[in-house]
């Protein structure tokens, strides 16, 4: 009986040991219903080299280009739509930089969680910008005639990416500490994941899109400790910092952008000094004016009070 008991115990231990081996976070790429498993790694280009190659399309409003070469990106997902502050897009990054991918689909976080490494087949997709933030997707013309690169159909996206089978912990870059000046480059820095440390909230602004193309931009809304929420009710809102009013190059403001659809929109902003993490997005109006840097938080946990 003792032999049988020890044999059973050994088998049970073997089962549990087998369950614990390997990377718990590693996706079973061969079993997934998402992506295109026919894509094999070849002709990988870095994000930096891709942005350099298409610098004109990225920096010029209304300009885009369809990629005709057999090129791939090998990147890690750094931001998605998990708490609603990003919509129909993800942000991906390699060691050289980041870029936004427009996808006409909700719930992307379910199959592309942060840290997932993917290959993107670029041939046939378009590269350009949305308000000067580098974006991969398909062309879109608004009712006002504004041309940009926006979200691609989800069926097209599914044909252009595949999992590598690996996950990676992405460490945010330190963008600034307190009043440290920022010197971001329009082409190379937009799309990166980073943190601004030891800053305090100053005031907010929002654009009343209900008024149409000539809508009013409301600025100078004071921060009230303990009362101010992330969003002015009904409007996507931008909060500025006391320490980071502008960068040293051209006076471009730095702000936290929060969508009115974010899960944490109605939550109260922390009081005192905070550290804020997010993906960096450049934004201007359709005339190329009011240049601003937006730090897009992915979730409520991206802002923390400094104790």
From TrEMBL:
Record domain DUF5689: where: 43-303
Entry keyword annotation includes Cell inner membrane: no
Entry annotated with the keyword RNA-binding: no
Keywords of the record: Signal
Signal peptide location: 1-21
Transmembrane segments: none
PROSITE patterns to which the protein is assigned, alphabetical: PROKAR_LIPOPROTEIN (PS51257)
Lineage top rank: taxon: Bacteria
Protein name, entry field: DUF5689 domain-containing protein
Organism: Prevotella communis
């Amino acid at each position: 009986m003792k032999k049988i008991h020890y044999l059973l115990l050994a088998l049970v231990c073997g089962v549990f040991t087998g369950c614990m081996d390997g990377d718990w976070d590693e996706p079973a790429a061969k079993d997934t219903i998402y992506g295109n498993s026919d894509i094999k790694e070849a002709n990988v280009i870095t994000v930096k080299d891709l942005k350099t190659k298409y610098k004109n399309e990225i920096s010029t409003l209304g300009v885009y280009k369809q990629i005709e070469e057999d090129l791939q990106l090998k990147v890690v997902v750094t931001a998605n739509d998990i708490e609603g502050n990003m919509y129909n897009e993800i942000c991906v990054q390699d060691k050289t930089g980041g870029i936004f991918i427009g996808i006409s689909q909700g719930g992307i976080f379910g199959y592309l969680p942060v840290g997932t490494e993917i290959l993107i087949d670029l041939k046939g997709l378009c590269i350009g910008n949305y308000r000067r933030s580098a974006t991969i997707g398909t062309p879109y013309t608004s009712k006002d005639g504004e041309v940009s690169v926006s979200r691609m159909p989800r069926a097209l996206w599914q044909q252009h990416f595949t999992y590598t089978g690996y996950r990676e912990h992405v460490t945010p870059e330190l963008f600034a500490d307190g009043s440290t000046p920022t010197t971001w480059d329009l082409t190379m820095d937009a799309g990166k994941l980073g943190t601004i440390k030891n800053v305090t909230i100053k005031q907010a602004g929002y654009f009343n899109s209900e008024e149409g193309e000539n809508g009013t931009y409301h600025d100078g809304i004071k921060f009230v400790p303990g009362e101010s929420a992330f969003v002015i009710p009904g409007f996507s809102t931008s909060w500025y910092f006391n320490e980071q009013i502008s960068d040293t190059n051209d006076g471009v403001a730095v702000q936290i952008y929060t969508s009115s659809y974010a899960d944490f929109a109605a939550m109260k902003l922390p009081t005192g000094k905070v550290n804020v993490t997010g993906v960096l997005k450049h934004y201007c109006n359709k005339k190329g004016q009011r240049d601003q840097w937006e730090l897009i938080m992915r979730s409520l946990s991206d802002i923390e009070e400094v104790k």
